[in-house]
Amino acid sequence: MRRRDFMALMGGTAAMGVLPARFGQAQTRAESLRILSEAGPNSLDIIGVGVNRNSIQATWNVYDRLVRFTSKPGPGGTLYYDYFALEGELAERWQVSDDKRSITFHLRRNAVFHDGSPVTAEDVKWSLDRVVSLPVGKPQFATGSMTDPAQFEIIDAHTIKVTTPKPDRLTLPNLALTYPVIYNSKVAKQNATAQDPWAAEWLKSNVAGGGPFKLDSFQPGQSLQLSRNDAWTNGPLPGYRRILWQFVPAAQSRRSSLERGDADIVQDVPPVDAVSLSKDDKLKVVGVPMAGAFQFIGMNNAIKPFDNVKVRQAIAYTLPYKQMFEAALFGRGRPLFGGKPGAPETTEFPQPLGYDTDLDKAKALLAEAGLAGGFETTFTFELSMATIAEPLSLLVQEALGKIGVKVTIVKAPAGQLGTMLQKKEVPFFFEASAAYLADPDYFFRIFYHGPTRWNFGSYSNAEFAGLVDKTRYEPDQAVYEKDVRRMIHLAKDEVPIILLWQPTLDTGMQKSVDGYKYQFHRQLELRTLKRV
Amino acid sequence: MNVLLRRLLGVVPTLAGVVVATFVLTRILPGDPAVFFTSSPSADAATIEAVRQKLGLDQPLWRQFVIYVGALLRGDLGQSITTGQPVLTDLLQRLPASAELTIVAFALAVAVAIPLGVAAALRPGSLVDHLCRLIATAGVSLPTFVTGLLLIYLFYYLAGVAPEPMGRLDPFATAPPRLTGFLLIDALAARNGEVFVSAARQLILPAATMAIFALAPLARMTRAAMIASLGSDFVRTARANGLKWRTIVVTYALRNALLPIITTLGMVFSYMLGANVLVERVFAWPGIGSYALDALIGLDYAPVQGFMLAMAAIFVAINLIVDIAYSIADPRTGLFGHA
Amino acid sequence: MRERLATAAYVLRANPVSLAALALLALLFGAALFGPALAPYDPLATNTSLALRPPSAAHWFGTDQLGRDVFSRVVVATRLDLAIAFAAVALSLAIGAAIGAATGYFGGFADAAVGRVVDVLMAFPLFVLAMAMVAALGNSVSSVVIATAVINLPFYIRLARAETQMRRHLGYVEAARVGGSGHLRILRVFLLPNIAPPLIVQASLNLGWAVLNAAGLSFIGLGVRAPTPEWGIMVAEGAQFIISGRWWLSVFPGLALMIAVFAFNLLGDALRDIVDPRSRT
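ok -> structure tokens follow
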């Protein structure tokens, strides 16, 4: 469905066929929002195999969760999610038991699904059961100690209790993430089959929820339309009545339509466009360094010569960070290079590791490692990141040449690189990743620990691993922070991977769009958006 | 009709070969889809195994093949993980885009190449002949992706007459209601002149790019076939009988030159349909070539298999059409059994 | 042989275009042999302060987004592009001739089986098949060579088979057979030398196409690795800049590509005229 059909839906425009499109647009502009993104959702069921990030944007806005992150001020008058302050969405309130092992949620009495039926504890249980029962959902919930449907217990029609084996500070934030959306279980069950008890097939293309927006239509590969759920009472009513979200693969086309005023919000703005668009006074570009996201140079600590900490440090002192930052991201991001070496000042992570370009130091370290003559290695990056990684890898190659390290550049398609990383076959590479939860121990557990491919450096250090396990359930905040500081110190000294920067999430929009909120999942939050 | 039937049956082993070959090809692609599609950092080895099971990749290869062929026989090409759609839906959605481009380019090429080849054959050694020879050699020397970029530079950047080289329609024009998926036809059916013009404008540069490449073999073959045909006995006889030159050229010579030309037409057309990928890349054309490329890189097996099979089927169908056209042009080949 | 040379001299004299082709080829082979010595700059050296400069006296073909000299890169790339094309064509010529001649000579079941395999190969969209093979074999120069060779194979097999079949019952072959020569000897001594000329013509016509194919693969990101200078990659890297008017990044490597293919095609035509004067077109 394209623009003209879209407006025909909006009433009062039936005789519009003869009027120029722009005239009609002016009538409805105030109430409708036109979003352009590179790609659209490939599923409306967020817990599935290969579900893309655009699906988050769809499900986030048509479903509710029990709890949500509140807002704090972000850059340029925008909002930023506050990881450490949650509020109820479908839950009116919740209480934590004295032993801190269970959380009891009291649902809003007036909350209803899109079909008008009330939201009950049974729906919540079915939805949470679904997360732990599907292979993709289970490991995420396990990070919050939820693995078994028996942990979700219905107390009465509007009360549900979540119990964990140990007190776990990650249980509550896990319930605010993208997976635990609350389904209308009656509708979903009607569409379940014996082979598919969780209605995964049906929910891929249908919505059974009660969020602030209803799905009007979805044309895969083209567009998705939402209309506001005026019966929604789980928060302030959103500012826009209608959302038209179109998928436009070419960045150039998205950009020009924003400049012409045809689109209200343009997502996935490439760094180079963000720089030039922000000079246009008719528009605004909101650039938020992505929390938890990071790009880095990985080194396989398990194989020679990267098993030697001096070699890793030598490389960290060789990289021409500033040039790389400019060439790859045009400076759109928050540097993780530079900073002070040694003991950390905050417990936040990722944070700058304390390395800057210093070739003399690098050569000295390499000599100490017994590799004064350098060595040969390959440097791999993923094909789809070529616009960033290509110039970056050339700079890496050139810089390392100066300390005698000969680098061959390898481009690998995403699927291949993932598999090679899983098998720990890649010695030296560029990659990017992100963690949803902001707790530093969570970050370390995923990216600096264990046998998975996400331990990009294949880092293994007995003290560090011990601290990762110890902080998992540490109840004492002071002890926790001391342990985290020690882990950060180790991560800085031993550089299992070289963090480069946190890239900026750039979203272009008309000046009239207000209330932009940066969410941990980096997709649009439609609840807060409004026109001024 | 018997011959035609046998000809149709002969297609089956070829298609079966394609099915086997593509299946093998996708399975030897380096990279593990289960790992690739388990993209959440919280995933562990057990999750990867569960995903593998869900994708049916935990089965031994022969069972995967049996399941694939079984589905194929039911007309099910499988699901694309990347788009979340059935492969058949995706292909039907995107095939018209590629086909429209190819057909327009092909028509352009034929419209230029055949008159050019005939003119060159009528006056060998003349200026027209040299021009034809030059075009024929230069045309195939132009990589389509370079020609495309050059045309974009000349007509979009410098002259500003061509629209932005992005897709089939100005992204904010309204697409006509979908009847055939061919935008030009759908726009005409909807009596929407504006959209027709917009679609035609988007189409010109990529179609010209492909046409330049396709022109060369056609012009060359037309010229050769015409020279041979003009030198043959029956033309000489016809001339001796005092028939009008025009009649001789059109009725006798061209008709006899048609056979090799038709063969070349078929080859060129199916080659163009397959080699679309590059042009689609340059012009951000949402066709099946770029779909296959994305699937190949994204380890999405079903679309790659579906694409290859569809292309092979089209290739075989075109060959069949060429054979039929052949027997109409020359009844002696006897495809219809009345030799 | 002398006759052939005479024809060659005649063809060259009669057709100045072929002379031009020879000159172009000389230029290409010169660049391929001495490229690294001829290039004024290091083709890999980056200099971000000189990025995206248009052509000038210092940088004849301008500089790219990392400040590398486009002229040096185009010149140095010649060797790799030509090497890929020659290797691929030689490979498919050798294998195709052997298989084609053997099946054409012996016929029977093997002939039918090979015929089927060739049918299947031909039914594939060839460029996409090449893409898939490079993806399967891994991004490297040798994968590009193999993929290009495989998709060309059917044409050589068919040609060699047809030429052999035509000759296997000719008098001199029968005579050799009666004279007690083994099959292999007949194939090697009597048939292969006689089917060689048309195959070599086919190969020379194929060279330009092989260059295009390899460059096309690199253009879509499969094949040769960056930062190795290669024409297809250079065109691809420059493509994103064409819309903003930085034409020199992709136009010069594109021109080099065209000249190479053009020269090979002219060479093929000329060779065909020499080998088989009747088929001149």
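Chain A touches chain B through 51 residues (CB under 8 Å).
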